Structures are given as C-alpha cells and as structure tokens.
Amino acid sequence: MKVVIAGLFIVVSIVTFVSLQCSAKATAQSSVAASPYLIERVANNEWLLIDVRSPQEFADGHIPGAVNMPHDSINDYIADLEGHKDKPIIIYCRSGRRAQLAMKVLQDMDFSEVMHLEGDMLGWSAAGLTIDRM
Q1: What is the mean pLDDT of the chain?
Q2: Helix, coil or strand: residue 1
Q3: Cβ distance 63 to 124 under 8 Å?
Q4: 93 assigned to active site
Q5: Catalytic residue (choose from 39, 81, 93, 117)
Q6: Are 99 and 71 spatial neighbours (Cβ–Cβ below 8 Å)?
C-alpha cells in the first residue's frame, strides 16, 4: 500500500511540475524591457514595434523604428500584420491601457508573440532612451 501511495505521489508531482513548466513558458515573454537592444531588434526587422497612441502623440515623439497603429483602429491593420502572426510584436502606448486593449485584439486574432513594452512611452522617456520626432 505504501508503494502505491508513493508511486501516486510521484506521478502527481511530475504532472504538476510539467504543467507549471508549460504555463511558465507561455507567459515568460509577455513583456519586453525598455532598452537599446529593443531598437536593434526592430532595426534588424526581427521584431515589429507598434505604437498604439494617436497620430499626434506619435508625431510628438516615438521610439525609433515604431509604426503607428492607433489602438481604436487596430482592426484596420490586421491584413498588414498577417506576415507577423508568428513573429514578435511589441506594443506600447503612453502608460499601458491602450496597449493592453490592442494586445487583446491581436491575441484574439491568433497572433502568437504579442508582447508589451514595460513602462510604455513614459518609462522609455524616463530611462533617457532615444526618441524620434516628426
């Protein structure tokens, strides 16, 4: 009886461990830190960086390499984004709310690597990182 209980405990432990590993893998890349490394990946066309603020906010200052796709019309850009379904897409706004809304739309449309820029534009500016202006 002790052997059966010990065996059952081991099986449950293994299943729990594997389950936690799979969950961690799925959420490990939900955000990206603000850094010059981000600009490098965008410049090399490895990542797509989307600014979901208004066109005026974008013109006033944005992260180099970012494309402007306002959150309230993100559905209008789905066809343009089809080539990025399985590639990293990083989304940001001023403080996070609009980015989360746009991320949800893309995730619901089966985009697999949609991530959020930690700190959004406020964090980027506070870190003293490069900003392009139009």
Answers
A1: 84
A2: coil
A3: yes
A4: yes
A5: 93
A6: yes
Q: How much is the average pLDDT of 53-78?
A: 97
Please compute the mean of the pLDDT values over residues 32-53 and round it to a whole number. 95
Residue 34 to residue 116: CA distance in whole angstroms? 10
Rg of the chain on CA atoms, in Å: 20
- Retrieve residue 7's tokens: 């065996």
Write down the residue that tokens 């009886």 correspond to: 1
53-83 burial code (b ≥16 CB/10 A, e <16): bbeebbeeebbebbebbbbeebeebeeebee
Nearest to 34 by CA among 134, 132, 133, 116: 116
Between CA 15 and CA 28 the distance in angstroms is 20
Q: Write down the domain spans for the chain.
A: 1-28, 33-126
pLDDT of residue 65: 96
Class of domain 33-126: alpha beta
Q: Rounding to the nearest 10 degrees, give the CA dihedral for residues 37, 39, 43, 47.
A: 80
Cα 5 to the center of its chain, rounded Å = 43
- Taking a C-beta distance cutoff of 8 angstroms, is the pair 132, 60 a contact? no
Distance from the first to the final alpha carbon of the chain? 74
